[in-house]
Amino acid sequence: MTSPHLSSAELKALVRTVPDFPRPGIQFRDITTLIGHHQGMAASVHHLAALAGAAGAHKIAGMEARGFIFGAAVAVQLGVGFVPVRKPRKLPIETIGIDYALEYGTDRLEMDPSAIERGQKVVIVDDLIATGGTALATAELLRMAGAVIEHALFVIDLPDLGGAARLRDAGITVSALMEFEGD
Asked: For the whole prediction, is pTM greater than 0.85?
């Protein structure tokens, strides 16, 4: 087993930048190269778990799909439960849901309301924070279920897009392992 102690700069170097994807002018930050690097993935989970543990997490919530990758791994490392926040019609039970605005249209997130006990501290974990729409909707949905949401953790923050600032304005402390300027 290798040491999970890579620095933020070393982790950042493992993220591939793909120019002009999905459209011209966008610098897409591709985490598949980080996930595929065993030491990079272990270090990312280790750092996120330390932050979630310091926040007093009773459970970890992650959004479909890449939030499942990091969130579930963090939950396992902390020894707490994982709450999947799903796209519509993916759960075979009665759910609660929230609609939220996208750049062009709307989307919806759903969850099992029995996954959380009222008053539990739930920390949101996802791969990337951009405009913050999905993370804000997730926080609101978890709060509807009775969770206390005070922290959200991300592998990557794109600060120029304002998502972390929007979460902070909603009373949520935001931490990220790395930042990339621009889109």
From this structure: yes
